[in-house]
Automatic annotation (TrEMBL):
Similarity comment text for this entry: Belongs to the anoctamin family.
GO CC annotation: plasma membrane
Subcellular location(s) per record: Membrane
Membrane topology qualifier: Multi-pass membrane protein
Name the UniProt record assigns to this protein: Anoctamin
Species for this entry: Oncorhynchus mykiss
């Protein structure tokens, strides 16, 4: 931890504070002596006074900012992967409900099939009653086609 405070705090020359921003004479604390204290430190990564790029962000600031953004993006992706994995593990519809849905579909298909068969039987019986055919089917072999008999 040696040098951490000097590394993580930036320096500001208090003689560069604009006059409109300086405290009034009565507001200055008694312990403050401007002849001894010439700088203040604040939490940031900026170049010190007197440097060629005075008070602009240092390269360390940009590295830390990039590391923070990379951490956020990586954590966001980890959360999404975990979320999709959990969603894949837990089914949306329970297996019992899926079985009931399959059974219901089967019953509906069976009902529709039986309905269509009955409807065709009724149509065929009505067509034989209304229009009797004089020809009699002479096919006795099981392999003869029904249409040949009509």
């Amino acid at each position: 931890m040696s040098g951490y405070i000097n590394n993580s705090l930036s320096v500001y020359d208090i003689s560069q504070i604009p006059l409109l921003s300086t405290p009034e004479e009565g507001a200055i604390p008694a312990w403050f002596n401007s002849s001894f204290i010439t700088t203040c430190r604040y939490r940031d990564y900026r170049y010190p006074p007197g440097h060629q790029r005075q008070y602009s962000h240092t390269m360390q600031f940009w590295h830390i900012l990039a590391a923070k953004l990379a951490f956020i993006i990586i954590m966001e992706h980890v959360v999404f992967v975990v979320k999709f994995f959990v969603a894949w593990l837990i089914p949306d519809v329970p297996s019992e409900v899926k079985a009931r849905i399959k059974r219901e579909r089967y019953l509906i298909q069976e009902y529709l099939h039986n309905y269509e068969v009955e409807k065709l039987k009724i149509q065929l019986s009505q067509s034989f009653i209304i229009e009797p055919k004089p020809e009699v089917c002479t096919a006795t072999d099981k392999h003869d086609v029904l249409s040949e008999c009509l």
